[in-house]
Each structure stands twice: as structure tokens, then as C-alpha cells.
């Protein structure tokens, strides 16, 4: 595969835009295809919690989670909710999801793979932000996890596996936590700080800045919805869009939760699902954390952004078309106020912003990164689930390496699309 190919990248989210930058760096001509505004509210990148958590190596499904499924079905407002009406369609994905976390060995395999993908992510993002002229949006100052007790931490399989894959952290007792976070509710008595991690001050603005940098560097942006891929034998001829064909030599499918139709069009029916997520943001808050943190009991990330204090989390399995359940955002707000008692309970609605979007998720918590079966001219880059923003920096580098026929910088077997085909 020679440099100088015309590469069409479908999707202008974090993965697609960084792939465009890296492909351009490899000497390819790049067209970025997306009907929406890069970094706009319609994109999963926009609503990301903003964590650059290079230690987020644990997939959502862990051993024994099958016991909780009845509760998920009965509680539409729990941390993981499944809408009854969507259950028949989601069932094949849910079975694969449960099986992927059936044993500790399976979860450990994913942890090692994700560690390779996410290692040094804050540094990689910082370099990209500097190139795009927005270095202030990326901070490498660690993140904190807080627990009601040390027992909650000790019983968490995730932390045992993080240690196994090489993640290091600093432990805090109740007094040390209070010195660092005086506004945090005293029910939290144990914490850990992962100093290698970082945060993004405004994910939407960051992706928009990267897209502007890519376009200024020579990437062509076509505002259109891609509907398929046209092959001549095993050679890619064009990307099909609602406004016509775009001739190209190679294509990258990075359309997030909407990638499934595109892979199916070339014979790869991959089990991609949307884990619908919500966030709530308080503008000009009276209180909050000094550092970014995750509360173990609320399963929620709290992060300062340039626009306010953002709380993000929870998962809803209900497909791409169902209307949002805004009560889930209210729960995030209530958790946030509970964590920081100095926040008033009657914050004016005008200061509270809510968001809803679609995480693209594979059942085993690992993205699809690799070639299509029908043609090595087509590369897949989607399904990052909860690690889309943090994982996008290295994913973009890997995609450029695959487009140029170079050896990838990390083993890609754990991310191969063929594992589900």
C-alpha cells in the first residue's frame, strides 16, 4: 500500500478527525464525510465526561453481572437500564455482552488489550491539542476515585486487574481526602488518585479544533450522510452518500453508533449497539471538586469543564431511535448535589444543561480496529464504548498505519473485527 491514496473517512467525531490528521501525516489525501458539525451536540464526543483515563481498562461486563439483569429490566432509572420494548432486538448483543465478562480471565484479556490502546493517552492528546492551538483544553493532572469505604475498593475486581496491567495509584484515607476535597460529602472515606490520567476541559471544542486543524492542513470536509461502500471485486471504488458517490482508494468507517449499516453493506454484520448516555452540567456552581473524580456508588464521573461542572454516566439500552428519558439526567443532578452538599438543591433550571447521546459499543468492551473482510481498502475504527475520547488518539495513529500497510504500534488481534464474524 503506497502513500498518496485518497482516503475517505466516514465520521467526524474524535476517532474520525484524529484518523484524518494522522492519515494526512502519512502522506494520504483525505476527505472527511459527516453530515454534522464536528464537535457539535449531535456527536458522542461532545457529551463525553471529559476524562482522559488511561486506566479505564475494565469492560462494562464482569463475572456475575448476569444476576443483575432482572433488576436492570425492572429499574428504568438504574445505572444500567434496558427498555423492555427494545429487549428482543438487543438480546443477541446482551448475550455476547454477558459471555464476554463470564470469567475473570476474559475480563483480564480485555484489560491488557485496552491498556495497550490507552497507555500515554493524555500525552498523545496534549500533543494533538498543541498542534491545533488549543493546548489549554488538555490537562494532565490526575483523577480521583472515591468510595464509601476501603471495603468497596478491596472488593472491586477492576482494581485488582488494573494493578495486574501496570496501573499505579496513590491511596487516600478519609483525612487525606478531606484535605484535598473539603466540599466532598463525608460519607466517602477512601479514595485513590491515578496521577497518569488527565482531562479535557471541553470535549466538543477540542474535537472542533482538531477538525479545523485538519481542514487547514488539507483535509476536505464533505457534509453528507454516508449510506454504503461500493466495491469492484476486492477493490474499493467509492463511498455512497445521500448526495452522490465520492470516489476514493480507501475508506475508514468511524461513524460511531451508526457504523453498523456501513459494515453490513460490505458483508460484515458486526454486533454494534448504542449504550445511550446522559450528562448534566451546572453553570457557575457554588461548590464542587477540586479535581476530576468518579463516585463508586453513583457510577458517575464529575469533571470541571470550561462551561461548568459536568456529571456524566449511566447506560441505557434502547437503540438509536427511542426518545431520551430525561429522568436519567435528573438522577445525575441529584447524585451531584448529594456528593457536594454545598450545592443548593434549588439550582435554577436556566443554569442546568442536560445532554443525551449514543456511545458506540461492542459487547466485549473492545473497539473494532482492523480491515474489512471484503477488502483491505476498508478499515474499521468504531465501537469504543466508554473510552472513545481517551482511546481516539492512539486509534487515529493505528488507522493511519493500517492505511499505509505498516505494522501497527500495538497488537491488534484483540480488536480484530473477525472476532465476531
Walkthrough of the structure:
With 421 residues, this protein is α/β, with parallel strands linked by helices. It contains 13 helices and 21 strands. Strands 4, 6, 7, 8, 15, 16, 17, 18 and 19 form a nine-stranded mixed beta sheet that branches. A six-stranded mixed beta sheet has the order 10-2-1-14-21-20, with helices on one face. A hairpin with a 2-residue loop joins strand 11 and strand 12. The chain starts with 5 loop residues before the first strand and ends in an 18-residue tail after the last helix.
Helices, by number, come to: 13
Overall 3D shape = globular
Q: Which percent band covers the strand fraction?
A: 25-35%
Radius of gyration: 21 Å
- The span between the termini is 25 Å
Poorly predicted segments:
none
Mean pLDDT: 95
Q: What structural class do the secondary elements suggest?
A: alpha/beta
Number of DSSP E strands: 21
**Share of helical residues:** 25-40%
Oligomeric nature of the chains: single chain
Main pleated-sheet profile: 9 strands, mixed
Protein name: D-amino-acid dehydrogenase
Organism: Bradyrhizobium ottawaense
Domain FAD dependent oxidoreductase: 6-402
EC number: 1.4.5.1
In short:
Its EC number is 1.4.5.1. This protein is an alpha/beta fold and 421 residues long.
Write the layout of secondary structure elements.
Blueprint: E1 6-10, H1 14-25, E2 29-33, H2 44-47, E3 51-52, H3 69-74, E4 80-82, H4 87-100, H5 104-118, H6 121-131, E5 138-139, E6 143-147, H7 150-154, H8 157-164, E7 170-172, H9 174-180, E8 190-194, E9 198-200, H10 203-216, E10 220-222, E11 226-232, E12 235-241, E13 244-247, E14 250-253, H11 260-264, E15 273-282, E16 293-295, E17 300-305, E18 308-317, H12 327-339, E19 352-361, E20 368-371, E21 378-382, H13 388-403
Parallel strand pairs: 1-2, 1-14, 2-10, 4-18, 6-16, 14-21
Antiparallel strand pairs: 3-9, 5-9, 6-8, 7-8, 11-12, 12-13, 15-18, 15-19, 16-17, 17-18, 20-21
Helix pairs in contact: 1-10, 1-13, 6-13
Amino acid at each position: 500500500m503506497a502513500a498518496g491514496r485518497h482516503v475517505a473517512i466516514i465520521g467526524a467525531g474524535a476517532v474520525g478527525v484524529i484518523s484524518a490528521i494522522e492519515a494526512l501525516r502519512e502522506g494520504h489525501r483525505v476527505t472527511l464525510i459527516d453530515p454534522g458539525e464536528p464537535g457539535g451536540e449531535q456527536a458522542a464526543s461532545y457529551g463525553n465526561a471529559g476524562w482522559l483515563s488511561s486506566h479505564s481498562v475494565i469492560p462494562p461486563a464482569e463475572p456475575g453481572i448476569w444476576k443483575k439483569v432482572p433488576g436492570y429490566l425492572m429499574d428504568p432509572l438504574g445505572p444500567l437500564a434496558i427498555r423492555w420494548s427494545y429487549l428482543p432486538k438487543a438480546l443477541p448483543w446482551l448475550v455476547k455482552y454477558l459471555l464476554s465478562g463470564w470469567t475473570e480471565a476474559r475480563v483480564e484479556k480485555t484489560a491488557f488489550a485496552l491498556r495497550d490502546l490507552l497507555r500515554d493517552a493524555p500525552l498523545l492528546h496534549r500533543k494533538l491539542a498543541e498542534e491545533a492551538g488549543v493546548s489549554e483544553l488538555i490537562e494532565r493532572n490526575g483523577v480521583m476515585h472515591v468510595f464509601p469505604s476501603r471495603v468497596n475498593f478491596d472488593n472491586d475486581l477492576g482494581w485488582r486487574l488494573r494493578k495486574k496491567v501496570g496501573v499505579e495509584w496513590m491511596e487516600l484515607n478519609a483525612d487525606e481526602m478531606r484535605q484535598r476535597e473539603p466540599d466532598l460529602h463525608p460519607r466517602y472515606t477512601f479514595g485513590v488518585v491515578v496521577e497518569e490520567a488527565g482531562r479535557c476541559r471541553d470535549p466538543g471544542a477540542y474535537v472542533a479544533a482538531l477538525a479545523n486543524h485538519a481542514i487547514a492542513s488539507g483535509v476536505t470536509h464533505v457534509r453528507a450522510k454516508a449510506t454504503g461502500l461500493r466495491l469492484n471485486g476486492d477493490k474499493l471504488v467509492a463511498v455512497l452518500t445521500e448526495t452522490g458517490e465520492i470516489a476514493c482508494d480507501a475508506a475508514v468507517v468511524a461513524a460511531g453508533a451508526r457504523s453498523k449499516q456501513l459494515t453490513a453493506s460490505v458483508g460484515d454484520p458486526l454486533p454494534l449497539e448504542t449504550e445511550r448516555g446522559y450528562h448534566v452540567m451546572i453553570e457557575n456552581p457554588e461548590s464542587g471538586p477540586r479535581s476530576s473524580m468518579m463516585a463508586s456508588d453513583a457510577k458517575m464521573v464529575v469533571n470541571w469543564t470550561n462551561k461548568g461542572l459536568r456529571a456524566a454516566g449511566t447506560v441505557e439500552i434502547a437503540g438509536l431511535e427511542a426518545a431520551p428519558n430525561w429522568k436519567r439526567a435528573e438522577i445525575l443532578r441529584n447524585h451531584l448535589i448529594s456528593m457536594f452538599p454545598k450545592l443548593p438543591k434549588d439550582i435554577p433550571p436556566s443554569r442546568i444543561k442536560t445532554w443525551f447521546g449514543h456511545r458506540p459499543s461492542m459487547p466485549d468492551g473492545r473497539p473494532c480496529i482492523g480491515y474489512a473482510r471484503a477488502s483491505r481498502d476498508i478499515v474499521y475504527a468504531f465501537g469504543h464504548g466508554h473510552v472513545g475520547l481517551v482511546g481516539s488518539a492512539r486509534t487515529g495513529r493505528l488507522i493511519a498505519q493500517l492505511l499505509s500497510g505498516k505494522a501497527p504500534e500495538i497488537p491488534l488481534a484483540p480488536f480484530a473485527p473477525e472476532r465476531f464474524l
